[in-house]
Every structure is written in structure tokens, then in C-alpha cells.
Amino acid sequence: MDYREPKLLPGDLAIWLFIFMELLVFGLFFIVYAVMRIQNIEMFNHYQLTLNRELGAANTLLLITSSYFVVRAVHAIRVDNVKKCIYWIYAALATGAGFLILKSVEYSDTFAAGINLSTNMFYMFYLSLTLFHFLHVILGMLILFAVAIKAQRGAYSAQNHTGVETGASYWHMVDLVWIILFPLVYIIR
Amino acid sequence: MKYESQGIAKMYFIAALGLFLGQIIFGIIMGMQYVVGDFLFPEIPFNVARMVHTNLLIIWLLFGFMGSAYYLVPEEAERELFSPILAKVMFWVFLGASVLTILGYLLVPYARLAEITMNDLLPTMGREFLEQPTITKIGIVIVALAFVYNIGMTILAGRKTVINVVLLTGIIGLAVFFLFAFYNPHNIVLDKYFWWFVIHLWVEGVWELIMASLLAYVLIKVTGVDREVIEKWLYIIVAMALISGLIGTGHHFFWIGTPDYWQWLGSIFSALEPIPFFMMTLFAFSVVNQRRRDHPNKAAVLWALGTAVMAFLGAGVWGFMHTLAPINYYTHGTQITAAHGHMAFYGAYVMVVLTMISYSMPIMRGKKAANETAQKLEIWAFWLMTLSMVGLTLILTAAGVMQVFLQRFSEDPLPFMVVQDELKNFYWAREITGIGFLSGLFLYLYSFFAKGKEVEFEEEQLD
User: Fold this and answer.
1) Are B236 and A17 an interchain contact pair (Cβ–Cβ within 8 Å)?
2) B271 contacts in chain A (CB < 8 Å)
3) How far apart are alpha carbons B26 and B22 in whole angstroms?
4) Dist. CA B18–CA B31, nearest whole Å
């Protein structure tokens, strides 16, 4: 019988080290944001209202949905259904792309209004935090895409699917960061 | 040596060590000028000694990187170097250009050098570390492109490993970012801004890739640990180095006239810059602990571990000390910067090149490891150089703290030169550590010629 030690963390341990470091970067960023917000509460509250919450909320839904899709992909490969696994990964990629499109629409409005990093401290944080996250969405999608291609080549099975779990773990991190970022920057008053 | 063309590394390493010796001698001259102002004046003014000291450092490290790449890449790619002739020709071109440039600094006044080399046509001279005449800079670009081409073609045609791909990425980056040396805007803020694209993105960006891949290569060789494990570490270290290092450039933009947001971006991202160095330390020690064999070259293992520790201290810890904008407001350009610069360059780049030399030189001379006496001397030299550098760094840090308080932080700040006079004792002590370092270097160079009993080991342990 194929017996494997129950693992503490799904996927490759290395990705968890990386996820931990990424969370450290974002965590530090969030703390600095929070401290500066306390010191400039009125300015932050004022400019927060100019953000497009509807698009932000839609993006939150997109990322949560896409996280659900990668969960389905991992479940599919655990029962050896490679085809379904690939299908769900592409679904996750599509929702990820949806996020990028909506965010680009939001950015184009922001930039059209003549706002940039130097406009004020609130926009500096808003732009740099979301742009940094935007780059992570792209990186996460590249990782998922690489996993999808490997899956198509038959690299994964019910016995061996660490790669799928690894990609999924990273994608959940990208989602998690947005779930904190969205209320922090767009909503909390 | 598995491939004949790996032997080209030898000439690069010998040139590197020769220039290294020159660098340290000029460092000691300059250290003396700190306390005896007219020492060797007018033959070697302070600004010239400084230029020679820093330029030689860059040049010999480049020789070291190139030598390392020529040694490592054929073995990783499992084929001979694409063009050994090109590598040899470029060696002489680069050495010739370097020696002429240094002689130019020493023999003619800098302004005259600019005239002779027709700096007017494309002015690029006169900026710290990029003092080279334009013609030398063009030479550097040609050498770098030929180097990238040679290494790139070898890798493309051969086996692609994580190590040689990371190394190639590093050297392409090195070549690309150097191009900013040719951009010399009139606006002094813009000038400084893009100047850092060369300086920072070299040492805190692409050079880190070169360093990580060299270290990983030596660790695979001396420990026999699975490539897969080492490659995973390499991925994470490189990712972290780039995430923190690229935007970390901002820590140079705090007080030079750039937009305010750099104070935030620079502080946040560069606060994370110690992480990849810390991981390199963890990496080196965990890999050595899991070793599958005891390599006869003990000195190389020591250099590899030393690199990881000293890079973390010098680049990571000493960098972090003054990387936050409010602290940097007081400390920039003081002896604290000098302390950080010395230990970071030594710990990260000098030591990684010496690690490669220590590992590969005996092999290129026909044995697995240097003889017992030579290794013993090399290990002594390691400690002498490293401890001297630790001493030098601590002394300059103390001097820097005092400088900040007397010159910038106090209610009643003193003028620069008055403060320098107050620091005299520190500078004397620093000169002593410098001489300690030079003796270590002499011992190190001598170790290559020492004769003694060959090291015994089981042949089948090694690949």
C-alpha cells in the first residue's frame, strides 16, 4: 500500500518559505500604511472616498472565485483527474486575468485624473501597494500557467502532485493579501 | 578539470589577485593620508588614491567574476567553452585597458586625462566610481558583451542548470545596467538618480545573482548535496534579492532631490534587503551540515561559509543600520557608510571570488586540493583578513557614530574638518587593521607557492 507521512503543509516547503517572506513584505507595508493613516486620518479618509469601491469589490470576488477554482484543481488531481485539474487551473487563470483587466480600468481612471505617486501620501500608498500586488497577481498567474503546462505534459498524478499544490498555495497567498488590502485601503474608515 | 577550456579561468584569477594587491596598497596609502594629510603629496593626492582604490576593486572583482564564469559554465553546461580564443583575447583587452586607465589616473592630472581621452565628445567622466575615461567605458562594454556572448552561447548549446541560468541572468544584468554610465544629464539630481542605476543595481541587484550562483556551485561541489535541494534555495534567494533589491534602490534617493515617496519605498523595501543574505547564511550552513562527503579542500569550505556570514553582516546588518530614511538623514556619507561599504564588499564579493579561486585553483593546477601546508596558510590568511576587516568595520562604525553626533546631530554642530581631527585616533587604529589585512593578503598569496604533504582522501568520494 502506498503510505505517505501526513504532511504539515501542502506543496513544496520552499514555496512556504517564499510565501512567508512575501507576507513579511506586505505585512511591513500594511503596518507602515496603518501608522501613517493614524497620523493623517482626515486626509486618508477624504481621499479614500475617491477610490472605486465597486471595482474593488468585484475584484475581490474574482480573486476569491479563482482561489476556489485552484482548490477544485487540487481536488481533481488528488483523484487522478488530470483533465479536470487543467480545466480548473485555466478557469483560475481566466478569473486572474479578469482581475488584471478591472484593475487596469481603475488605474486608467486614476492616471487620467492626473494622480501619481507624488500627489499625496494616501495615493502614494494606494498606488504602490496595489501596483506591488498587481505584479504578484501576474507572477502567480505565471506560476499557475507553468503548472498547467506541466500538467498537460502528464507530469502530475494522484500520487505525485506537489507542483499543483505548490502553485495553488502561492495563488492563495496572492488572494489573501488582496483580502487584507481591499478593506484596509478601500473600506475601513 | 573536466573541460580544457575551464583552464582559462586561471589567467583571470591571477590578474584579479594582482589587482587586489594593488587595491589594498592604495587603501593603505589613503588610510595614511587620513592622518598624515600630505603623505605622498604631490605624487599621489588623496582623490587619486581613492579613485585607484575603488576602481581597482571593481576591476579585479570583474576579473574574478569572469574567471569564475569561465570555470563554472563549461562544467555546468557539460561542454567546452563556445570560444576559448575570444575569452583569451578579451582578457588581454580588459587587462590592457585597466592598466592604462590606472596609469592614466596616476600619471596625469584628471582634467588632463579627460582632455587626452576626448571626454568632450561624450562626457561621462568625473563621477564617483565611474571616473573611467569614456574610451575605457566603451572598452568595458565591448569586453562585457563578448563575455555575455561567449557564456551565453556555451549555455544555450549545453545543459541548462539553475546555476548557470542564474549566473547568465546576473551577467546580462551587469552588462545592461552599466550602460547607464553613459547617460550623464546636466541636472545633478537626474545625474545622481541614474548613477545609482549602475552602482546600486549592480551591487544590490544583479551581482547578488552572480554571488548566489557561484556560492551554490561551490557548495554542490564540496558537499555533494543534491542539486535539487541547492537549486530550490537558489530560486528563493534570487527572488527575494530582486524583490527587495530593485525597489530598494530608493534608499539612495532619500535626500538628493527626488520625490518624497522614495523615502517610503526605499525604507520599506530596503528594510527587507538583509533577508536574502540571511537566507544565504542558512543555506550555506544547512548544506554543509547535510554534506555527503568531506571534501579535501577544507579551505574552500571555510571560504564558502565565511562568505555567507560576512555578506550577511556587512551587506545585511551594516546596511540595515542606516537604511531607514530618518536615520539616513543624519548618517549618509559619513564613516558609517564607509564601514558598511568595506564589510559588504569584502563579505559578499571579495570572499565569493576567493571562494571560487580557493576551490578551482588547485584543480586547474592538477590536484583536488592544495597541500596541507598551503591549506593551513590559506586558513590563517582567511582569519587574518577577515578579522582585520571586522576590526576595520567596527572602528569606522565607532568613528561614524561620533562623526554623526559631533557634526550633525548635536545642538551645536562642529565643522567637518574639526570633527575629522577628533576622529584621528580611530583613523590610526583603522590604518593598523589595514596593515593586518595586507599581511593576510600576503600570506594568502604566498600559500599558492607553499610546498608540503599532499592531502589524503578517498578518490571515489568525489565526482
Assistant:
1) yes
2) 28
3) 6
4) 20
Look at residue A117 and give its three-state secondary structure: coil
Closest to A163 in 3D by CA, of A146, A177, A180: A146
Domain regions of chain B by residue span: 1-160
> How many Å lie between the alpha carbon of B259 and the closest alpha carbon of chain A?
7
B244 touches chain A (CB under 8 A): yes
* A17 lies within 8 A of chain B by CB: yes
Q: How confident is the model at residue A1 (pLDDT cuts 50, 70, 90)?
A: very low
Kindly report, residue by residue over A43-68, the tens digit of the pLDDT. 999 999 999 999 999 999 999 999 99
Report the residue from A14, A117, A128 with minimal CB separation from B232: A14
What's the complex ipTM?
Answer: 0.81
User: Counting beta carbons within 10 angstroms of the beta carbon of residue B344, is it exposed (0 to 12), middle (13 to 18) or buried (19 or more)?
Assistant: buried
**How many other C-beta atoms can be found within 10 angstroms of the C-beta atom of residue B109?**
11
pLDDT at A17: 87
User: Could B268 and A21 be called an inter-chain contact, meaning their C-beta atoms sit closer than 8 Å?
Assistant: no
Spell out the domains of chain A, with CATH numbers in brackets.
54-187 (1.20.120.80)
Bin A114: left if φ > 0, else alpha if -120 < ψ < 50, else beta: left
Q: How far is CA B171 from CA B30, B66, B87, B307, in A?
A: 31, 9, 15, 20
